[in-house]
Amino acid sequence: MTSPTAPGIVAGRLSADLLTAGFADLHAPLDRHEAHVAADRCYFCYDAPCMTACPTGIDIPLFIRQISTGTPEAAARTILESNILGGMCARVCPTEDLCEGACVREAAEGKPVEIGRLQRYATDTVLTRQGHPFTRAAETGKRVAVVGAGPAGLSCAHRLAMLGHAVTLYDARPKAGGLNEYGIAAYKSTDGFAQREVAWLLGIGGITLDAGKVLGGELSLDTLSDEFDAVFLGVGLGGVNALGIDGDDHDGVRDAVSFIAELRQSTDLSALPVGRNVVVIGGGMTAVDAAVQSKLLGAESVTIAYRRGREAMGASRYEQDLAASHGVRILFNVKPHAVHADAIDLEYTSDDGTGLRGTGETMTLSADQVFRAIGQTLTTDGGLTVEGRKIKVTGAGRTTRDGVWAGGDCALGGDDLTVTAVAQGRDAALDIHAVLTGA
Hints:
Fumarate Reductase Iron-sulfur Protein, Chain B, domain 2, alpha/beta, single chain, 5-stranded parallel β-sheet, 3 domains
């Protein structure tokens, strides 16, 4: 496998104009007229299956009606009361599997109400204005440490601050946002939106951000528990699974998460090296994001190799189709077998009901760059009980240690989605509040 500076993995494959066009906003925002037309398609269902399908329980019929009556600010408040990161979720949620997938219009016509774009229209009207739509309750005198400034931590911190608690928000990275800032495709969150949303969220007051602090490093759970009245962990999953095959340690084999993070923080996309022939191992959203962005950087051939069939793929059918529309090939029922200097061997798989296994038949693809996107692992648990490689929790995120809650990707349960993490952070905050105040 060639190194990132060797022929085959090079920067500047495309012109600046092509890079700008390729990484433009995936879905253009609706203007006022378009939003009203889209809102008029809603039936405002009494039983609201779209609302039931939303992990944060946003009152979708209400906010769409508020848009249709010309009050997008009221619509934004309806959204943000349930999901304080409603702006980002409008951009990254797999709405085709959640609210829009449950839409009556989808069942009747095959074309749902554009709930995600309507949510973005509403929240953008508030996030671009001065001030904050929510005010803090009276100070409770209680202090809470929130470790991890990703979707779960931000949601938890905001709700705690709104309820009157003083929050110190820690994060290992220099910027808050977690996967919203470092882990999603650049074309899903353009123009620095993740940081603008964080700054807006912190406008509630009562939250002190302390970046560059790592649990297990500068921070210990024992110390935090002594110094604060409660602790919430939203540390995510910092480790990346290895391929566990010959050649896994070759130069040019890297994890997709770090590639996406590097791309998201880049100020010059033309300086990012990418292979001529790229293979991504995995079947989730990270695999698709890495594959599509490799293509947008100028890779000539990009292939996603997934060990199971299409129906088991973690990435939604929409994301699969998005990858295909950019020229990414998806191979199903193949797993990595060995990595060579400029190629990768894939072994066909089958499942006869007793488990997935290799068939012994292999194929070889040219590959000067291979990305691992086969899941992430917990890197620090603070001494808490771990089950299924995640922190064990009950109820609204209570861990096995009194006074410590957890949520988001690091905690057991959930769907590893931004919107699910937001819901878990919010619900944990409400539970923390009840415990601290005896409510």
